[in-house]
């Protein structure tokens, strides 16, 4: 399945962001108010959720310090934008 460049994040970025945070799909569902099945389907490439739903997912990650790196010459990615100390406080 190919993804349009207008999609705010890719399934791989969602999985990577959850990995950085130590979140399960259930945790992401709780934080984003998006159904766990929707998240699972998106992350395995079965379907692309509505744009608004993807923005809810992105917002939930950004609120806890995740920054998405758009696809470019070095490829897409995910990173923390806050220093380590701030991340530790957010994860509690």
TrEMBL record:
Stored Gene3D superfamilies: lambda repressor-like DNA-binding domains
Mind listing the GO molecular function terms for this protein?
A: DNA binding
Q: Which InterPro entries match?
A: Cro/C1-type_HTH (IPR001387), Lambda_DNA-bd_dom_sf (IPR010982)
Coiled coil regions in record: none
Specify the taxonomic lineage. Answer: Bacteria, Pseudomonadati, Pseudomonadota, Alphaproteobacteria, Rhodospirillales
What protein name is recorded for this chain? Answer: Helix-turn-helix domain-containing protein
Q: What Pfam families does this protein map onto?
A: HTH_3 (PF01381)
Q: Where are the transmembrane segments?
A: none
Domain HTH cro/C1-type as annotated: residue spans: 15-73
